[in-house]
Amino acid sequence: MRFKPFELERYFAKYEFSAKYLLSSSDCDGLLQSDVLDLADAQSRELWDNLTLGYTESGGHPLLKDEIAKMYQGITPDDVLTVVPEEGIYLALNCILKSGDHVICTFPGYQSLYEIAEGIGCEVTKWELNEARGWALDLDFLKSQIKSNTKLLVVNFPHNPTGYTPTLLEFQEIMDIAREHNIYVLSDEMYRYMEFDAADRLPSASEVYENAVSLFGVSKALGLAGLRVGWVTTKNKELLSRMVTYKDFTTICGSAPSEILALIALRNSELIVSRNLDTIKTNLGLLDTFFEGQDLFSWIKPRAGSIAFPRINGNRSSLAFCETLVAETGIMLLPSTVYGFGDNHFRLGFGRKNMPEVLDKFSEYLKA
Ligand SMILES: Cc1ncc(COP(=O)(O)O)c(C=O)c1O
Questions:
Q1: I need a labelling partner for 296 at 20 to 30 A (CA). Which of 82, 100, 205, 280 fits?
Q2: pTM of the model
Q3: Which long-range contacts (CB under 8 A, 24 or more apart) does 290-299 make?
Q4: Ligand 1 atom 5: the closest Cα is on which residue?
Q5: What is the structure's pLDDT at 346?
């Protein structure tokens, strides 16, 4: 195979549908299809009721693209290509990179963001978040790593798995560095709209930098991962056209029912996201209390998203801890080994309504 196995996805494949309690999921609770349909306006209800299950427009349903563009400043429907979220990463990397290019990517992170570049034959420099500084990024490191063949910078804010998000000034500086050196940016924004304080929401990279591709979708903040609907946005027409052409070799077009359900959800996104954020904020309060009362873990409170990356103190193996936990209690956590980031952290998810119940079970286990 061209790529190494996607360790996180393999771990999820092992436990996601067999473990009794999920405490590491990154998405919010999946919505019921009937709840989404209840939100439909007359036009989208009509589209749903009379839907033909044939092929769809390759670039995405025009109404869906309109709705997507409305979420951005200065992005038009012509700057949008609908994709399966993970596919967006694949398309962008394959359309930007060739063997021998140099790529800088935030790390730890969602494996495909750098693995595909390595599979293409690129040299990848990992730009590590600094735990001692609250998972902050060192911009001087970024500047020092740029070489004549650096083609792409890959960033992911809000960040999986730490929940870190830079300040607006830092973000602007990152974009300025990329522009100054004429480097493309792939900005994975899958956790956007999950900022605990809306003032922390960064612009989309595709709004502010002409050679940036941004990725977003309905999987996380909207709790609709099963629709498999996402999109890339970019003002770089030539790059967008390359991605459109490449998509003919991956999925050709989106799923007809998913497009209409995503359209309905986006037309009601404020309501759906605010409900999910309420759950997240309640859960975060409980996690604060949980972490304050113990010395087994070190907790850096995230600033956005639905996941965090606590450390297990005392140099205990995270993999052994997670595997024992799931075997003895049915609670699934995600060890940092699946991120290729040592064996001392685990990913915790707090986007689900049953988190308080699962956290209680986790506390009982730790006490015992
Ligand atoms: C940072 C990041 N990017 C992309 C994806 C891919 O999204 P999807 O699973 O909806 O294809 C994920 C999913 O977990 C993610 O965390």
A1: 280
A2: 0.98
A3: 290/359, 290/363, 294/366, 296/366
A4: 86
A5: 98
Pocket of ligand 1 (CB under 6 A): 26, 84-86, 110, 156, 160, 188, 190, 217, 219, 225
Residue 187 phi, psi dihedral angles, 5° rounding: -110, 105
The answer to whether the bond into 158 is cis (omega within 30° of 0) is yes
- Whether the ω angle into residue 257 lies within 30 degrees of 0, i.e. cis, is no
In order of their start, the domains of the chain are 7-32+270-367 (3.90.1150.10), 54-268 (3.40.640.10)
How far away, in angstroms, is 58 Cα from ligand 1 center?
A: 21
Query: How far is the centre of ligand 1, averaged over its atoms, from the C-alpha of 175 (Å)?
Result: 22
Spatial separation of the C-alpha atoms in residues 338 and 345, rounded to whole Å = 10
pLDDT at 102: 98
pLDDT at position 315, please?
Answer: 87
For 288-314, write each residue's pLDDT tens digit: 999 998 999 999 999 999 999 999 999
Ligand 1 atom with the shortest distance to the CA of 230: 10
Residues of the chain with pLDDT under 70: 1
Atom of ligand 1 nearest to the CA of 8: 14
User: 156, 219, 251: which to mutate for ligand 1, most atoms within 8 A of CB?
Assistant: 219
In the 8-state DSSP scheme, what is residue 7? Answer: H
> What's the pLDDT at 1?
53
